C-alpha cells in the first residue's frame, strides 16, 4: 500500500517532541489538525491532550470520546479536519505496538516520537491498513512552515 506523505512544519514536529519530553517518563498524546488530499496530508495545528490512562501511563495512552469531540470541534472552527494522532514512546522505538494497532483507526496518520531521559530520538509516522492487519510507514516531509488557513 502506498500512502501519501505527511507534511508538517519543523516547528510542529518540535512541539510534538517537546510534549514527549515534558511528559517523560509517561506517554504524551495529542491530535493533529490539517488537510488531506490525494497527493499529501498536511498538519496545520496540534491539539495536545492529557493522557487519560492512569493504570500504565508509562507505556500506554488513552484519549476519551470527549477528547475526540474537542479535537473535532477545534478542527471545525479552523475549517480543517482531524487527520491524525500523535503520542510518545518513552524509552522505546518510534514504531506502533500491538496495543497501538488494536486501538487505532484506519485512515488517520499516527506520529510516534521515541523519547529518552536525554531527549527526543526518532519521530516516525504510520497509517493503519484498512483491514487493520498492520501499519504502513508514512514519509514525513518536513516543511519550513505550515500553510496558512
Round the Cα radius of gyration to an integer and report it. Answer: 14 Å
CATH class: Alpha Beta
Classify the secondary structure makeup into a structural class.
alpha/beta
- In N-to-C order, the SSE pattern is EHEEHEHEEEE
Oligomer: single chain
Main beta sheet strand tally, sense and closure: 8 strands, mixed
The rough form would be described as globular
Strand content: 35-45%
Number of domains: 1
Number of helices: 3
Indicate the CATH architecture: 3-Layer(aba) Sandwich
Output the strand order for the largest sheet: 7-6-5-4-2-3-1-8
Number of strands: 8
Characterise this structure:
The chain has a single domain, classed as Cytidine Deaminase, domain 2 (3-Layer(aba) Sandwich), CATH 3.40.140. 23% of the residues lie in helices and 38% in strands. The chain has helices spanning 10-23, 65-78, 98-103; strands spanning 6-9, 29-36, 41-49, 81-90, 109-116, 119-128, 135-138, 140-143. A hairpin with a 4-residue loop joins strand 2 and strand 3 (41-49). The chain is globular. The chain starts with 5 loop residues before the first strand and ends in a 6-residue tail after the last strand. The relative contact order is 0.24. The model has no long low-confidence stretch (mean pLDDT 92).
